[in-house]
Amino acid sequence: MAALRALESPPLVAPVVNGHRRLRGPYTVGSAILRELVPVALERSPDLVARHDIEIRAAAPDLRPLVPLRRDTIEARLPENERILVPAPRRTLRIANGLAEFIRDCLSGPHALIVDNVHQADPTDRELLAVLARRVGDLALALGSPQRPLDIPMTVVDAAGDHDSGSAADYVAADGTGDDDSAHQAYLELPAAERQRLHDLRAAELGEEFALGARLYHLEHGSDPEAALQALWAAVDRCVTEGFLHAVAELGPRGLRLAEPGSDLWWRFTQRTATALGGLGRRDRARELYDRARRESMDPVVHAACAYGTAMLDARHPDPEQRDLGRATGWINEAVAISTLLPDRRERAFKLGFDQNGRALIELRQGRVTSALDLVESAIDLAERDLPADAHPVHRMVLLANRAQLLARTGRAKDALRDFDRAIAIDPVFPDHYLDRGNLLLELGRVDDALADYETAMAVSPPMPEAYYNRAELRLASGDLERARADLDHVIELDPGYLDAYVNRAGILEMLGDHDAARRDVAAGISIDPGNAHLHGVLGQLETAEGRFSEAHAAFDAALRADPKLASAWANRAILRYETGDAAGAVDDLTRALAIEEDAAVYFNRATALSALGRDDEAGRDLRRAHDLAPDDPDIREALERHEAG
User: CB of 289 within 8 A of CB of 273?
Assistant: First the structure.
């Protein structure tokens, strides 16, 4: 352990924190800070604590008796077999941002945080430290680590000095996190029974708040493997519920080593671990676990679940080019075939409906929207017919929300809204469905209702970049550039990797004439996605505005190579061509833009280019169509009147 130097000034947020994940698991650092701040905040500003109830309770479960859950999801009240949602890895970013805002609001003046063993910290803590460094300006970080952790601006302190010779008991008392080699060597030289005795004594000393870390470590190395197994399962179950997928990927295999192969608990470890690995992109390892389960078990439920899980590894691959939808279809059909034969009516209704919903995703990704809708409706019918009215509410909620999205795709907006309403009624604090309903409401022109949904999503969730991004799009569509920019500023503050926020903010900055800032956003976005068509399109506009016509042409060409269906790039390259004397080329580009999407401004511009070429009849037709699309536009009306008069 590095001997960290205390900072003379400013004061510490908490005493020096050992960030090793073996101590308390996820948020070992975060919970140490919260234990310092929450009791004081409860006295001074209980409303502040209440606003961050989800984040505090997730990061510091030992504080839950002090922090009642204000935003209580239905999932938290369900038995294990009905908790089917696995939060995406991005949930921890929401938690980290919420914790950062809580910590920021608790501090008055400069403070310091000193953390050791950052290289052994759980990814939740490393993410939190990066967010604190970015968002809490009054907090100085000094981190002890053999190497500089990525993406965390900080002072790195590695001041390890000479160590006194330690004993095996010292090593155990430090929960195996010390770097005293002599103590570790003494521990290794002990007889196994003596090592177990020391671990049993240490486990008895530790409270339940160490169940995800030190206590669990000692139970595993102690003399009661059954206690260790049950503690591991409780830890995995909690981490799945909270979305701590890296911890599940680490704890799950430890449980599998202790569980009897083929047993119910062994299968539950397998399923949770494979699900977490898939969510983290470690699909090959997840597939290996499903393959092993198929070899170990003859339970049809296990085989159906393995087939479903294997199908989703392909169907949910984030890169469309790497999805094997044919292979996914084969696996999901196997899951459906097995679930159809399950003898228990209720189990069959749930499992078969679950599999049909998965098959609907595959159908949707193959462009078969009607088939996907039929499958989801079949799953809903099964639930309504064969499940008790109060059973599996989250399953019903997911099916209703999925049907709503499919109905919206088929133009049945009224029916889609009804399903979104029903899904939200099941769990009014599940934020994602407010975003989806808000998007549909915005498409329907119900701007105020859409805004209300986006802001409700903000209220029921820890800081959610997607909600602010959606509100920015609403404000941008309404012409409110300044407030749209402010929302996008906040999106990027919450998530500096949010590509679409850079795209839209760069466009807004270009419209506002702040070309230097727009260029910075273009550069930031291109560093994330070098081939992004929209960003190259904005770059082309910036180069055009600054008279760098050759560079502008290259940028528009790059945009159109990346996305030949990007109408704005065709339209803006047409403006460049017209301004550089190529009216015929401008007409060609504007015609390509109109083939993709009708737009009054594009018709107006093509009419201008056609007039320059002497093609007045065609120009008149374009002006009349532009006027049909935008009858209140004064420039179009004036141009049409001149044309008709001439």
Answer: yes
Tell which phi-psi region holds residue 385, choosing left (phi > 0), alpha (psi between -120 and 50) or beta.
alpha
Query: Which pair of tokens denotes residue 391?
Result: 């059973």
Can you read off the two tokens belonging to residue 1?
Answer: 């352990």
Rounded distance between C-alpha atoms, residue 474 and residue 479, angstroms:
9
- For the record, the structure tokens of 349 come out as 């209704």
Judge whether 570 and 601 are in contact, CB under 8 Å.
Answer: no
Reported as a single tens digit per residue, the pLDDT across 211-257 is 899 999 999 999 999 999 999 999 999 999 999 999 999 999 999 99
Cβ-defined contacts of 34-38 (< 8 Å, 24+): 34/59, 34/60, 34/63, 34/99, 35/60, 35/62, 35/63, 37/13, 37/102, 37/103, 37/106, 38/63, 38/66, 38/67
User: With bands split at pLDDT 50, 70 and 90, how would you rate the model's confidence at 5?
Assistant: very low
Please tell me the distance from the alpha carbon of residue 411 to that of residue 444, in angstroms, as a whole number.
11
In sequence order, which ranges of 116-180 are alpha helices (DSSP H)? 123-135, 168-173
* pLDDT tens-digit series, residues 391-433: 999 999 999 999 999 999 999 999 999 999 999 999 999 999 9
Distance CA 128, CA 92 (A): 9
**Interval 271-291: pLDDT, tens:** 999 999 999 999 999 999 999
- Which residues does 85 contact at the CB level (< 8 Å), separation at least 6? 75, 394, 398
Exposed / middle / buried, residue 586 (Cβ in 10 Å: 0-12, 13-18, 19+): buried
Give the list of residues 6+ apart from residue 477 with CB closer than 8 angstroms, or none: 442, 447
Single-letter amino acid, residue 54: I
Amino acid at 165: S
Point out which residues pair with 156 in neighbouring strands.
Answer: 143
**CA atoms of 386 and 402, how far apart (whole Å):** 20
What does the block give as tokens for 222? Answer: 């102690």
* pLDDT 10s digits, 145-192: 776 654 566 555 554 444 456 798 989 999 998 878 888 899 999 999
pLDDT for res 427: 96
pLDDT, tens digit, 9 for 90 and up, residues 332-380 = 999 999 999 999 999 999 999 999 999 999 999 999 999 999 999 999 9
* Token pair for 148: 């500089």
Phi, psi (rounded to 5 degrees) for 143 = -120, 130
- The residue among 525, 552, 547 whose CA lies nearest residue 537 is 552
Paired sense of beta strands 139-144 and 111-116, if any: parallel
Residues in the chain: 646
Strands of 443-540, DSSP E: none
Residue 519 to residues 160, 259, 505, 513, Cα–Cα distance (Å): 44, 56, 10, 11
Residue of 157 and 111 predicted with greater confidence: 111
The C-alpha atoms of residue 317 and residue 47 are separated, in whole angstroms, by 41
Q: If you ran DSSP here, which 8-state letter would residue 12 be given?
A: B
Q: What angle do CA 227, 231, 232 make, to 5 degrees?
A: 115
CA 120 from centroid of its chain's CA atoms: 24
Could you tell me whether strands 155-157 and 111-116 are parallel, antiparallel, or unpaired per DSSP bridges? unpaired
State whether residue 1 is helix, strand or coil.
coil
Measured distance CA(78)–CA(91) in Å, rounded: 20
The closest of 231, 241, 281 to 85, measured between CA atoms, is 241
